[in-house]
Known about the structure:
By secondary structure, this protein is α/β, with parallel strands linked by helices. Among the domains are: 71-224, no CATH class; 255-311, no CATH class. It is built from ten helices and nine strands. It has helices spanning 2-22, 24-43, 73-82, 91-94, 98-101, 120-130, 165-170, 268-274, 295-298, 303-311; strands at residues 107-109, 144-146, 153-154, 181-185, 187-188, 206-209, 223-224, 255-260, 283-288. The chain has a five-stranded parallel sheet with strand order 1-2-4-6-7, covered by helices on one side. It has a two-stranded parallel ribbon with strand order 3-5. A two-stranded parallel sheet has the order 8-9. Helix 6 (120-130) links the parallel strand 1 and strand 2 (144-146). It starts with a helix and ends with a helix.
Amino acid sequence: MQTRKKYIFLTFLASWLLLFFFGGDQLRRFAFFSGRKAEARRNWPHWTDRSLLKSFAVPEELQSDGDPSLPSPRERRAARLSVYKNSRCRMETCFDFSRCEKNGFKVFTYPRERDQPLSESYSKILSSIERSRYYTPNPEEACLFILSIDTLDRDHLSGQYVRNVDEKIRGFPLWNGGRNHLIFNLYSGTWPNYTEDLGFDIGQAILAKASFYTENFRPGFDISIPLFSKDHPQRGGERGWLSQDSIPPKKKYLLVFKGKRYLTGIGSGTRNALHHIHNGKDIVSLTTCKHGKDWEKHKDTRCDKDNVDYEK
């Protein structure tokens, strides 16, 4: 037994000596670089710790919804981010303040094209701007630019969806990659996914949008706006309640919401949770369950009463 161990040891030693003499350069180079890497790793800043780095894909991104015809969560996220190529835009990096220095805050709206469809809601937005004291018909004086292309509804299935927006805006001499432009959007994507794919690259433009994804919202640059219906009045009614030194302002209502209460899917959890703050006095939440063709399959015990209150 001792003799066998001795032969095994001598064989291993001979193999190692042969490898060292005939492949010594490679071994020494490997030892040298291994030492350098170990030294560098000790000197790396703490923020390169692997435990602090995000993995290439989270488990949710690798799972599908069970329906091969629908995009996976990873594909949906890629679609959302593809529109926001300038995701690091801030006012100091993507806005030219020099345009505002000479003439102050002046807004120019692009001329309407005869064959370009325009929704009632977007027409109200443009008209409101053009009637304001900030409007200028001269683009040379403008600090901010508003497209005449209706971008409010970016649902591919909508009859108000404007096609080939990318091609059109690239042909505008004032576009300048979107710098100093403001784009309005209320709806994006198509049910049931509602991705934030607007169908064109907004470039360095500011986005005023309803229902932002937090990961796409650029703080201090983009503007989160409420979703409003087409019959929303262009002008206000009675004067507001805000008076001098009235902070907080005197209001009859603190919060009001009227809309669909999605029973399943995106938004359902949020709207169900918000129901519990309704008190019928200064906080009013009116929702209807009537959404989609099969809403009755998912109706809950609150639906009948909610639908009646909504219709009042």
